[in-house]
């Protein structure tokens, strides 16, 4: 019997299946307004980004690390004179971010329902464990997945491990996501197909050049176009 070229499909979560970055942007706007008397908003945003990148190896990805980076930035911007009331407000907006509603993106449910039962579906997302579990539960999409993997980071070894454990190895797997850096490039390096679904808001840390010369790279405008890509492979 001829083996199907594709048996396992991985999906990123944030800004692939549901909105996420827009809530971070709104929180960052609130943060810059809190410190408006100390620096311009673009300066505050740049310092916050530096703190986030610096702290990734300590706190990982997610809201808790973002909140700690806001506090650290506030201390730096004010040269250690940030009022305790401002720290309290930063903690409040961090907690609000942890409670934002889940808004699934167009075609997410229909696409997963169409693929469920035909392929092994696995959610592969990074970030805070509790927050990602909350969002998955509120999305109502959890029952459509055969496996859920919440990881500290995404690299080629991550995809090799998951696709070998859940499916038939990375060569017969596909990863769908909005981040070239986290979802697509490392999946391609592992030997999988990588389908890039751009989102209008993507954290600058996740930006890299499109690997247009990679034979297993695909790009679609939205999840509704994924079926055509998969059919072409089969």
Helical residue percent? 40-55%
Per DSSP, what share of the residues sits in E-state strands of 2 or more residues? 5-15%
Number of helices: 9
Query: Mean pLDDT, rounded to whole units?
Result: 92
Please state how the strands of the largest beta sheet are arranged side by side: 3-2-1-4-5-6
Structure description:
- With 234 residues, this protein is of the alpha/beta class.
- Helix content is 48%, strand content 12%.
- It is built from 9 helices and 6 strands, in the order βαααααβαβαβαββα.
- A 6-stranded parallel beta sheet has the order 3-2-1-4-5-6, with helices on one face.
- α1 crosses α2 and α3 packs antiparallel against α4.
- The longest helix is centred in the N-terminal third of the chain and has 19 residues.
- The radius of gyration is 19 Å and the shape is elongated.
- The model has no long low-confidence stretch (mean pLDDT 92).
- GO terms for molecular function: hydrolase activity.
- This is Hydrolase of the HAD superfamily.
- Keywords: Hydrolase.
- InterPro entries: HAD-like_sf (IPR036412), HAD_sf (IPR023214), PGP-like_dom2 (IPR023198), S-2-haloacid_dehalogenase (IPR051540).
Briefly, what is this?
The chain has 234 residues and is of the alpha/beta class. Helices cover 48% and strands 12% of the residues.
């Amino acid at each position: 019997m001829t083996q199907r070229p594709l048996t396992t499909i991985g999906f990123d979560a944030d800004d692939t299946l549901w909105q996420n970055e827009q809530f971070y942007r709104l929180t960052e706007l609130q943060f810059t307004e809190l410190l408006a008397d100390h620096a311009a908003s673009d300066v505050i945003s740049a310092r916050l980004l530096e703190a986030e990148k610096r702290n990734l190896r300590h706190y990982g990805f997610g809201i808790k690390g973002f909140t700690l980076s806001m506090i650290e930035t506030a201390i730096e911007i004010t040269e250690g004179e940030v009022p305790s009331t401002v720290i309290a407000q930063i903690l409040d907006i961090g907690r609000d971010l942890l409670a934002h509603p889940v808004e699934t993106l167009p075609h997410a449910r229909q696409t997963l329902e169409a693929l469920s039962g035909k392929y092994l579906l696995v959610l592969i997302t990074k970030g805070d464990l509790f927050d990602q579990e909350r969002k998955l539960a509120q999305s109502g999409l959890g029952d459509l997945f055969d496996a859920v993997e919440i990881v500290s980071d995404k690299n080629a070894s991550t995809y090799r491990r998951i696709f070998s454990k859940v499916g038939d190895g990375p060569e017969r797997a596909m990863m769908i996501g909005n981040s070239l850096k986290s979802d697509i490039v490392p999946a391609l390096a592992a030997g999988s197909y990588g389908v890039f679904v751009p989102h209008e808001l993507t954290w600058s840390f996740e930006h890299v050049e499109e690997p247009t010369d990679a034979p297993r790279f695909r790009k679609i405008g939205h999840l509704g176009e994924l079926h055509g890509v998969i059919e072409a492979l089969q």
